[in-house]
Amino acid sequence: MGSLLPMPNEPHKFLQIYFMGGEDSGSALANRVNARCNYNNLDSLYARRIVSELDALLNEHNELLKIFKSHMHQLQSDNHAIVINPDKTPAGEHIRRFNAPVVDDVAGIMVGDCTAAREIVIRRRNNNLQFIADTSFI
Questions:
Q1: Is residue 61 left, alpha or beta, with left meaning phi > 0 and alpha meaning psi from -120 to 50?
Q2: What is the pLDDT of residues 97-116, one digit of tens each?
Q3: Residues 134/120, Cβ–Cβ less than 8 Å
Q4: Could you report the per-residue pLDDT of 28-55, keeping only the tens digit for each?
């Protein structure tokens, strides 16, 4: 499926087209129609009208699209960070449970079907995205 966000300086593709600008604005609809028509080399007025009506139909009735859009809002507003301050261990906790890392490793736990393929993306401090193979152990 790919990322819901395009890579920097890349055009929106596939599902990313649904997340161009505000969903309810006329300019967002025009951008989505243009992206689809340009990608498929459709330049007739009738093709644009059909694509526009299909877009409206999908936006109104497609439950999966609604789920994708709710995740997109989460991605855009997600400013969370993990901060480890070893000097502030919570009361009643073991003193070494909240130690600061001593190496530059990142670990994560993924709940769910471990056999399914997944896309792992790390956003670096410089805002570059790094794609990690789901089979990577390093």
A1: alpha
A2: 777 666 666 666 665 666 66
A3: yes
A4: 778 778 877 887 788 888 888 888 888 8
Does an H or E element contain 105, and which? none
E strand segments, the chain: 120-123, 129-132
H or E element that contains 122: strand 120-123
Q: How many residues would you count in the chain?
A: 138
Q: Say which residue the tokens 């299909």 belong to.
A: 54
Cα of 98 vs its chain's centroid, Å? 30
CA–CA separation, 131 and 138 (whole Å): 13
Please give the backbone phi and psi of residue 10, each rounded to the nearest 5 degrees, phi first: -115, 145
